[in-house]
Design goal:
The structure is a homotetramer. Chain A is mainly beta. Helices cover about 10% and strands about 40% of the residues of chain A. The first copy, chain A, is built from two helices and 21 strands. In chain A, the strands form four sheets. A nine-stranded mixed beta sheet of chain A has the order 1-4-17-6-15-18-19-21-20. In chain A, strands 3-5-16-11-14-13 form a six-stranded mixed beta sheet, with no helix packed on it. The longest helix of chain A has 20 residues.
C-alpha cells in the first residue's frame, strides 16, 4: 500500500518517540523532506538544525532482533536551490594548515531538475563552467536505538543516523537492526550531491520527495546497517576514528559472508583481501562512516 | 634510452645507498622484481623480507626540490604462482573479534599469464569457482628520504615506500618528491591483485618484469606523492591513523589544485566537497596509505 | 538542606526524564548507588546494566548556559565485595596479541571497610599478598544532554556520563554544563578502586552511599566538564580516539585559563607546555576520557 | 671507567653510523649535548635541527637480542638560557580552534643554575611571577634500529629516539633493545623542563653535561624501551595515534610482568587494572610516546 507521511513536528534526535504513522510490512511510504537547516521546498523554515527528521514511522511486525529493510525507490528534488559550506572542514587537512583555510561561509547551488544537474549560483574563479550531475542521497535515516536512547541527528551508530554516505540513493536497499517494537523509522537531510567524506561538512543540502518501501526481515540478527545496490553489497561502520569505523564494517561483512554466502572466515579473508572496496561515507560528523563493499560479481548466494 | 637494471644485492631499506645504475632524464628502465619474501621467478630465494628492493637508480639531473616522475609502462608477470596470507589482519576487525580469527597461514594462488587471471591453488569451500582478473601493481617504490634516512621497506612516508595502493599499476604516472641528488629510486614488492587496504597483509605476492620511464620535473616542490591515471589525478598521504593519512592527502590536493589548476582554497573546497573520492591504499603497514582522488572530467588545466 | 534520594526505578540512559527529586541550589544529597550490573548492597538485583543510574534530580535555578557544581563530599562503601573483569580489554594491547589473552571472566574482591583496603577473594599466583588501598570514585554521573537526547550510560560526552576517571572521588568538585532547565542530574556506577584507563573494562564495582552538594553556577558557559581537587584543576574531554579527547580537554583548559586566570593563549601555552599533566580516565568505553590537569601551585586567580 | 665523549660531527638520524667512541660494558660516559636547534653552551651553532645527536657509542659486548642499560646519573645545565615555542601545537586543540591560535614564535627562558629554576626572560601578562623548578630530561636518545635503518631524530620507535618523556631524567634507568653489534648509542636534545605531551612542540631546550652508565643486559629480549625510577617501573610505546602507543606500552608491560615478576596474564590484568598509570610523553612528534607505569610498591621480584 502507498502511504504518505505528512510531517508537522520535526525531530533533531532519533529515538523512542510517539509514531506519527503506522504502516504494514511492505508498504511504500512517500514523504517530503526539509533540508538540514530546517527549510522546506518553499524556503519556509519549520525547524532548527541539526538535520530535522520526518517520523517516526511504526512498522507493524518489526521486533528487536529483526531488520528493517528500506528500499529507496526514488528521490525527486523539490527545490531549485541547495546549499553547501564553502571551506573544507578543519579536521580533514593537516592541523597547521587550518590557519590558512577560508571562512566556513555558505554557498548556494542552482538545481536544474530537468537536466538533473547542479552548478554554483555565484561561480568563483576557476569553476565558472562547472556543471555536475545530481546524485540524490539520504544523509540521515535510521531507527530508534537500543536502551530507549534518543540520539542527536548530528551523529550515527548501529541504528543508522547521520551517515552521509553517497550510495544511500535511489536503487539502494538498506537493512537496519531493529531495537524497538515497530522499529520507529526516521528520515531526512537529503543531498543533491556529495563527495566522499562530506569534507565541507555538507552535501548540496536541499529538499526532496522520497519514496521508500519498508519491510521487516524477521530475526535478521544484524549488528550494523547493510546495503545492496544493483552491483554491490556493503556493510557500514559508524565510529571515530576511521580505523574503528573500518573495523566495524569489516567485522559485519565477515559475519554476512559467513551466514548468507557460506564463506568461513578463511574463505572470506581470501575474497575480501583481493576484492574489497572501502568507501569513506563521512569524515566530518561526530561518528565517521566507512562502508566495506564487495561486488556481487564475486558472490553466489 | 632503454636501460635494464639487473640486481645482485637487494635492500630492505629505502635510503641513501650507492646507486647500482645511473640513467638519464627520460630513460626507460626494465627490471625483474622478486617477491615480498625474496623469491625470484624461479623460486630461488635471494633476500629476506620485508619487501627486498631493486635499486637504487641514480637519475641524472634530479635535485632536492624536484620531483621524480615514474611512468609505469608495463608489468609482465614472470611466475605462475603468487602467495597471500589466509586471514584478515587483526587490526581491521573489532578487537574482541580477533580471538576468533583463523591463523595467518600462507595460501598459494595460480597465475594464468595467458588469461591474466588468478585463482586459489587449493580452493576452499565456497570459493571453488573463484577466478579473479589480474590487476598488477607495485607495492613498494620510492626515493631516498630526507636527512640521509634509510627507512624499512615495511613502511612509507613522503618519499613513497610500501604504500600498497592498487592504482600504482600500468598506465599510472607517479611523481615523488626528490630529497637527494639523483633521487635514488627503488622498486619491488609487486602484486598480481590486491583489494583496498591490503587487509590480509599481502596482495597476491609474485614476480614481475616492470618497465618504467623515469623523468625529472624541475622545482616541482611537491610534499607527498602524486599520481595520474587515464581518468583521475590523486595525491597520497602515508601515516597512522587513517585520519592523518587522509589529512596529508587532502592538504596536498588543495595545494595541487591551487598551483596547477587555478583553484583557490574556496573553489577547491567546492569542487572536492562534491566530487572527491578517497581510496584506502593499505590499512596494514606501519604507515597507512590514503589516496585523495579527483576525476579529470571536472578539471581544466 | 540535606536531602535523601531513594530510588525505585533505575535508568540506563542519561537524558530528559521526569525528575524523582527536586532540590534547591546548594542542597546536599545523599543516595545509595547500586553497582554497574544493577546489584545493591544486599546483593539484590534491581536493574540490568549498563551502569544503572539514580536520578534524575532537578536542581532549582539551573538553566541552559549555567553549570551544575557537584561537590563530592563523601563516599561510604556499603558492601564487602566488589567485582572486576579478569583480563585487560582487547583494545589496549597490540591487535595480534589479543589471540593470547585470557577469557573475560569475573573476579570478586573483598572490601575491608575498616582498613579501607581491597584484595582478591581468590588470590592467584603472584598476587597472594596483594592488598590495595581503596580509592572510591564515581564512574558515571552527568546531566541531561543537549537537544533532548537520552544517551546510554555506557558512554560519555559534554554532559558527563561514563567517564570512569579516578579523580572523581571525595574532595573533588566537578562543574557540568547545563543543557536543560533543572540540569537533571544522574549518578551511579561507583568503584572502590580503578587504575588509569579502566583497562580491564571495570574498576572494582560495588555499592556506595554517596554524599554530594549540588549548586548552580550562573552563566558559566563551559563546554566540557571541569574539576578541582585540593591540589589541581582539570578539564575533561570525552571522545574517541584518545587524540580527540585530549584535544577537547586542552581546548577547554585554554578557555578556562583565559577567562578565570587572565592568561591569554600565548601565556597559557607557556604555562601548559611546561607543567600540564594528562590523565587517561578510561580507554575502554565507547568515548574515551582524557583529563588535562594543572597544579594550583602555578595559578593565581 | 669514566669516558668522555667529545663530539665533532652531530647526526640528525639514529642509525648504523661509524662509532666515535667505544666503551666497555659498565663504563660511565660524560658528554656535552647541544640544543635541539644545534646551538652549544656558548651559543655557537654546530648543526641544524632536528635534534642533533652525540654519538654513536659502541658498547662492547652488546649484540642483537640484548638490551642496552642506560643509567642517567646526572644532568648539569651548561647554559643560562633555554627556548620554547610560544603556542600550543595545532594538533592538541580542536581543529576549528586552530584558527585562533597565536603564531609559533620562540620564547627565551632564563635558567638559574644555582636555584635550579627557570623563568620567562620577557614575562607576559599573567605570568610575571612564574618561577618553575628545573626538571632535566633527555628528549632524544636511542640505539641503531633494525634492518640497518637510519631514522630522523624527529621521531621514535622500538629503538628509542625522540620520545620526549619527562621521566627520562637523573635517577632513571632505561633499557633499550639492541639491534646492531655494539648497540650504537646516540644522545642529545635535553630539556630543562617539559610538561606532559610536549604540547608546545618543545621543552625548555638547552645544553647539558650528561653523565650515564652504559651496560649490557644479555638476551634481555625486550621489544620496547623499559625504564625504572626510584618508585616505579615503566614501559614505552612510540606510535601514532596515542591509542596505538598505549597498546605497545601495555603489551610490553604484560610481557615484563610475566617474565620477571611471575605474573600470568590474568594476574597482570588484575594488577594493572587497579594500579596502572599512563603518562603521555609526547603528543607532538611524528610518533607519539605513551608510558605504562606501575609503582614498585605493588611488585615483588
Amino acid at each position: 500500500m502507498l502511504r504518505r507521511l505528512v510531517v508537522e513536528t520535526y525531530h533533531n534526535v532519533i529515538g523512542k518517540l510517539p509514531p506519527v504513522l503506522t504502516v504494514n510490512d511492505g508498504d511504500i511510504v512517500v514523504t517530503d523532506t526539509i533540508d538540514a537547516a530546517g527549510f522546506d521546498k518553499s524556503g519556509v523554515r519549520h525547524a532548527l538544525g541539526p538535520n530535522p527528521m520526518n517520523g517516526p514511522i511504526f512498522v507493524s511486525g518489526a521486533e528487536p532482533g529483526d531488520a528493517l529493510k528500506v528500499e529507496i525507490l526514488s528521490m525527486t528534488p523539490t527545490r531549485d536551490t541547495g546549499w553547501t559550506r564553502s571551506s573544507v572542514a578543519a579536521n580533514v587537512v593537516d592541523p597547521e594548515y587550518v590557519r590558512g583555510l577560508p571562512p566556513r561561509d555558505t554557498a548556494i547551488w542552482t538545481i536544474d531538475q530537468h537536466s538533473m544537474t547542479v552548478r554554483l549560483q555565484d561561480p568563483i574563479p576557476g569553476l565558472e563552467d562547472l556543471v555536475l550531475p545530481m546524485r540524490p542521497m539520504i544523509g540521515c535515516f535510521g531507527v530508534a536505538p537500543s536502551l530507549g536512547q534518543s540520539i542527536s541527528t548530528a551523529t550515527s551508530g548501529e541504528y543508522g543516523g547521520n551517515m552521509d554516505y553517497r550510495l544511500f540513493g535511489p536503487g539502494t536497499t538498506v537493512c537496519l537492526p531493529v531495537f524497538e517494537t515497530g522499529a520507529l523509522f526516521f528520515v531526512g537531510d537529503c543531498h543533491a550531491l556529495q563527495g566522499d567524506g562530506e569534507i565541507v561538512g555538507t552535501g548540496i543540502e536541499t529538499t526532496f520527495e522520497v519514496t521508500m518501501r519498508l519491510s521487516v526481515v524477521k530475526e535478521a540478527k544484524i549488528t550494523w546497517p547493510r546495503g545492496e545496490t544493483s552491483t554491490d553489497i556493503f556493510t557500514i561502520g559508524n565510529a571515530r576514528p576511521l580505523d574503528q569505523a573500518l573495523q566495524h564494517a569489516t567485522t559485519e561483512m565477515l559475519e554476512w559472508l559467513g551466514r548468507d554466502y557460506g564463506l568461513g572466515k578463511t574463505a572470506a579473508s581470501h575474497l575480501l583481501g583481493q576484492v574489497v572496496r572501502y568507501d569513506i561515507g563521512n569524515v566530518f560528523d561526530p561518528a565517521y562512516t566507512v562502508a566495506c563493499r564487495v561486488s556481487k560479481e564475486w558472490l553466489k548466494r
